[in-house]
Amino acid sequence: MEDWNARLSEVQVDREDLNKLIMNYLIIEGYKDAAEKFSQESGAKPPVNLESIQDRMVVRTAIQRGHIEEAIERVNDLNPEILDTNPKLFFHLQQQRLIEYIREGRIMEALEFAQEELAPRGEENPEFLSELERTMSLLAFELNGPSPVSDLLTPGQRQKLASELNSALLLSQSQEKDPKLPALLKMCWWAQQQLDERCTYPKIKDFTKAELVMEPMGASPIGGSHGAGNSSGPMAGA
Amino acid sequence: MTLTPHEVAVSHLGRDQCAPHERIKSLRFIKNNIIGNKTKKDLYIQLGIVSRLQDIISAKDDKDSQLKVQAVIVLGSFAFGNESNVLSLINSGVIEPLLNCLNPTGDPKLIEAAARTLNAIYASPKVSRQHLFVGNHLNVLVQLLDVYSNYSRLRQETGMFHTAELVASVLARCCERPDHQMQIAASDAIPLLMRLLASGVAKSQEAALGALAALVKDNSELARLIAQMRLEKNERPASFILRLVRDKSPTMRLAAATCLAYLNRAGVIPEHNSDIMLTVLPILVKMLQLSGAVQEAAPKVLAYLIWESESMQKAVCDMEAIPKLVSIISQMDEEDNVYGIVGQKDKLKENSLLALAAISQLKEDCRKQVIEAKVLPHIVAAMSHPTVGVRAAACQCTRSLSRSVKNLRTSLVDAGIEAPLFQLLGDDDPGVLSSATATLCNIVLDVSPMKKSIMERGIVGKFVQMIGFGDNIVRLNALWAIKNLVFGVESEIKETVMRQLGYRTLAVLLNDGELAIQEQALNLVRNLACSREQDIEQVFKGLGNGQLLGIIEDKLTWDDARLLEHALYVLVNIAAIGTEHHKQSIMKRPGILRSVLGLMSHEAPAIRVATTWVVINLTWPDEKTAIGVHSRVVQLRNMGVEERLQSLTADHDLDVRDRVKTALHHFHLDRQQHEHNGNGMSDQSGAGNGRHGQNSRYGTHGSTGQDAHMAGEGYGNTGIDTTPVLTGSEATGHDHRTM
Fold it and tell me: Residue ranges under compositional bias (Polar residues) (chain A) (predicted)?
């Protein structure tokens, strides 16, 4: 055990690296203001122009509010290549527009839009056809009643699209689409689980405190409530 | 008549119609309509928008760059549509004004947009790259790669890297010709690409890898240059790229693997052989299970990397690449059946077929795995695919598989490749034709049960036609196929073939401008004048009086080992089984004899062996023609042949020494007979037994030797390219041609 502690104290963690990790998280998840403050306080230099975070967040907010056209225009201003080279993403955006028409009860417009914009995409890519069919069947059900396609009307559907678009924007800016911090925490969590079965060691029981505590071997593992696995970022503009 | 909003938008673009901000508004409207939407792109092109855009971007005044920026972006979006969109852009002459938009003192946004649009246009292989290489355009473009220059620092950093990324990608797309590769290298692009490679900005690194790969592809000079450069900390580019091959991002891994594959094929990174085997190959094989662009490109890179390398083909086979490729191909065929839409994933299919062709190129084991994976029906179906690339790739597969005698006899027949293959001989595409003819080189071999039926379809006539009209590769393959076809066949078939080809054509081919064609033609003569006395007589007669030996005499003066060898073996054949008259006609050609004597000290052992065979066969002891033999021995001895043979008894090549022994023995026998026994004839029965015994020893040796030579060399595989295949002897089963 002393050996363990001795070795643990030998490990040098560079403060700068930790700051980079945090900055990486803030940028990818879109906390522009926090990133700015953190940069001022810690001296960590943001690897990208902070304006680009703002751009992404505007797009994300537009999607979450159901303003799909506005989001499309913003993306085309940021990088006109993205939607021309990513037919799946483009289809999902158009699909969301259709959903929004239906949600607002603009049925004629919905039909027209589906015919003019979505049907040709379905012809180009057969894999989109079934999604289109599913979306169209929204018309057959009560909007607020139970239906097999009601998930399309949930905020989760917009959220999914917002994330897909965010990833595409990040990728086009040479940034990773997932922050490193949650992955590291997951790895730490997994490693502790493996160790729990084998030995007693100073472990982190509560990730929010990150204190090392000794726990006798065989003590019941602590359910998945530590949040290490839940990396979904907070939603700007929510 | 009311105008649609699209028509209104286009009409706003005219110079005098609207204020600049109105025109910008219209352009933005159009942009947001066409991005991602192929139907709208077509619609706008039909409305004649391209020439209006062309006017806007060609305007001299740079006061309002925003208008130009939007117009350039709209043009770029058209280029992401189909090929015909790109052609309408080209036909309007947009490339030159787009290149002018790259002016480094201009608006960075305009530069970035122009680079993007050019990149999209150059994605089409049909667009001429010439504009870029005229005037100062290339230099201007290359400067944009310099993200660390003083000038660049003033600009926004992200946009700068993005522009550099687009420029690197444009360069990658303009490297198809070696002179373009050299011109780009001469513009000092390489050091800038190296810095971009080490920049740590993922997309820029990928683009730099793409450009470097394009520069070194099939260009050993640039490959060597780049491999020997140094990055930071004195690191070689290859070891740096090897780290990127393990990157998290699949597109980065692919770009890095591609670059290493090209460097490796150029033979400039031998120190990384094991890295290629243990790292790059498994990573490429794993990519087969991804999706999208990476999965699509990976099999092609794999095919390129393992081509001609038995050990890598074996390694890839052991990594279970074949079932992965087969499942891609068969799954695709199922999808096609469901949707009835062809063309979605043609490239993936083409590349997967190419990978299968490469894996089964050399190793019989690998071919066996391909056959057992039950993919042949899919390959055969792909031979009639509407897309030319797929047809060519499928044909490449059958060509690899047909190198195996076992496959020729069984699987390929069962799969019914004959009809579609024959069909492909009418294909317009030279690539398809050359693969098809190369496959046929194997199909027409005697071991193939398809030989007879494909001849009945009129294959010889097709070949003759192609020899007359095809491009050089097709002509070569067709002639090669004819040569294979007449190897070891009955006189009747030879005559049928020659009635169609014609001896006059043969004579012309023997003096063709292409050396490779000459070689095949001479090889054909060799296979025709073989096996039977009457066959030889046919060739003598066919080529006309004295022509045959005149041609041989000429070829013996060429400095080309393969040509020499074929010419010598024609003599070997004539001397072995020709009539006494034929043999004497050789002896009446002092030019030939002098050449043979001279070639006895040729540097290539194979040539020395061939010359010795000529001597052996000319001096072959034969009781029926004893006088003729004796006179030939005397003539050769007087020329100094025996002396030369003596000097070869210590030759370092075992084969040469063995043949020389036999030849000297013939001279020895003759001397015995004519010096010690004045009355040779009466004594012959006495010495006969002994001589006969010896004769049969050497005779057996000699005749199998001859057969082996005619068979083994008759196909004359050596060199050219890997093309016509199985060309080795069917009986001897050289390395990859297992039974």
Answer: 228-238
Percent of the residues in chain A that have a pLDDT greater than 90, as a whole number: 34
Q: Which amino acid is present at B432?
A: V
Whether B36 contacts chain A with CB within 8 A: yes
Dihedral sign, Cα of residue B264, residue B267, residue B272, residue B273: positive
Cβ proximity of B31 and B77 under 8 Å: yes
Nearest C-alpha of chain B: how many angstroms from A60? 18
Helix (H) or strand (E) holding A195: helix A180-196
Tell me which residues of chain B, numbers 129 to 158, contact chain A at a CB-CB cutoff of 8 Å. Answer: 156-158
Burial of B430 (0-12, 13-18, 19+ CB in 10 A): middle
Q: Which of B337, B265, B344, B339 is nearest to B301 (CA)?
A: B265
B17: confidence class by pLDDT, cuts 50, 70, 90: low
Chain A contact present for B270, CB below 8 A:
no
Residue A157 identity (one-letter amino acid):
Q
Sign, Cα dihedral of B562, B564, B565, B567: positive
Q: Which two tokens stand for residue B105?
A: 């003192």
What percent helix, strand, coil does chain A show, rounded to 5?
A: 65, 5, 35
Q: Are B442 and B486 in contact (CB under 8 A)?
A: no
**Residues A207, A227: contact at Cβ < 8 Å?**
yes
Residue of B78, B75, B77 whose CA lies nearest to B97: B75
Residue B477 confidence (pLDDT) above 80: yes
Q: How far apart are CA B649 and CA B658, in angstroms?
A: 8
Beta-carbon contacts of residue B122 (< 8 Å; ≥ 6 apart): B129, B170, B173, B174
Question: Model confidence over B49-74: pLDDT tens digits?
Answer: 999 999 999 988 767 789 999 999 99
Distance, in Å, from the CA atom of A120 to the CA atom of B411, rounded to the nearest integer, reads 43
Render pLDDT for B543-569 as a digit per residue (tens, 0 to 9): 987 899 999 999 999 999 999 999 999
Closest listed residue to residue B24, CA positions, set B78, B80, B73, B97? B73
**Burial profile A13-29: b = 16 or more Cβ within 10 angstroms, e = fewer:** eeeeeebbebbbbbbbb
Q: Is residue B628 a contact partner of residue B616, using CB atoms and an 8 Å limit?
A: no
Average pLDDT over residues B142-161: 72
Average pLDDT over residues B166-171: 97
Is the confidence at residue B282, as pLDDT, over 50? yes
Strand partners, A214: A202
Considering only CB atoms, which residues of chain A are within 8 Å of chain B?
48-49, 52, 69, 72-73, 76, 79-81, 83-85, 87, 90, 93-94, 117, 120, 124-126, 171-176
Would you say B312 and B306 are in contact if contact means Cβ atoms under 8 Å apart?
yes
- Give the whole-angstrom CA distance, residue B119 versus residue B102: 13
CA neighbor of B702 nearest in space, from B597, B586, B622, B601: B622
At which residue do the structure tokens 């007979």 appear?
B673
Q: Mind listing the pLDDT tens digit for each residue in A180-234?
A: 888 898 998 899 888 888 888 888 888 888 788 877 665 544 444 444 444 443 4
Q: Does B4 touch chain A (CB under 8 A)?
A: no
Q: Using alpha carbons only, what angle is made at residue B485 by residues B483 and B486, rounded to the nearest 5 degrees?
A: 70
- CATH number at B1-94: 1.25.10.10
Confidence of residue B297 (pLDDT cuts 50, 70, 90): very high
Q: Is-above-0.95 flag for pTM?
A: no
Asked if the interface predicted TM-score (ipTM) of this complex is over 0.85, the answer is: no
CA distance B261 to chain A (A): 24
DSSP string across B142-167: HHTT-TTSHHHHTS-HHHHHHHHHHH
Place of tokens 């052996």: B616
Q: How far is CA B269 from CA B208, B225, B237, B266, in A?
A: 19, 11, 10, 8
